[in-house]
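(Deposited chain)
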Amino acid sequence: MNHPPLQCGWRGSLLLCAGLLLSACSSLPPPPPASRDSLRDFIMEARFALRLTRPEQAPQSAAGRLTWEHRQQGERILIASPLGYGVAEIETTPDLAYLRTSDGKTRSSADPDELMEAATGERLPVSRLPAWLLGQPGYGGQLQRDAQQRPQQLNEAGWQVDYAYDDESPTALPARVTLRRADEIELRLRIEEWRTAP
C-alpha cells in the first residue's frame, strides 16, 4: 500500500482550503463603523425618494439609488436609477466640484449645490448633508435627541431633518433620514449600508 500520494493529496487539499479561506477573507467588505461618534470618512448606500411641490405646479417626484462617499478632502456622489444605472456623478474637491452625466458631459462649479440642482432639479445642501446624516448641526442649527440620546430631529438653514433607527442601540447610525424644506421639497433616504471609507 502506497501512503505518500494520499498524504500529499490531503496536504494539497488542506493548503487549497486554507488558500480559499484566506482569499475569501481578503475579499470581504470592511466591517461597519462602530458608532456615529467614531465615523469620519464613510460610504453610505441608500435608496431615495425626492418629491417637489411648488406653487402653481403639479407635484414632481423621482426615485433611485444614492451612493455617497464622504472624505475630509471631498465628496463623491453617485445618483442612479432604481435599477442601478448611473445617471449622474458629482465629485467635490476643496477648490472645485464636477458633475458628470450619463451622456458623457462634464460641468464644473465652485458651488456643489448648483451641480446637484443641475442633476436633480433641486438645490440640495451637498456641503451640509454629510454632517446632517450623522446628526451634527452647524452654526445656528438645533438638534433634538431621542430617549437613547441619538439624533431625532435637526433644524438648520430652513431645513428639517428627521432620523429613524432599526435598533435600540444608543450608538446606532440612522436607517432612515428625511429632509424637508417648508412644503417645497422632501427627500427620503432609506439607508441600506454604512461603512468606513478605505
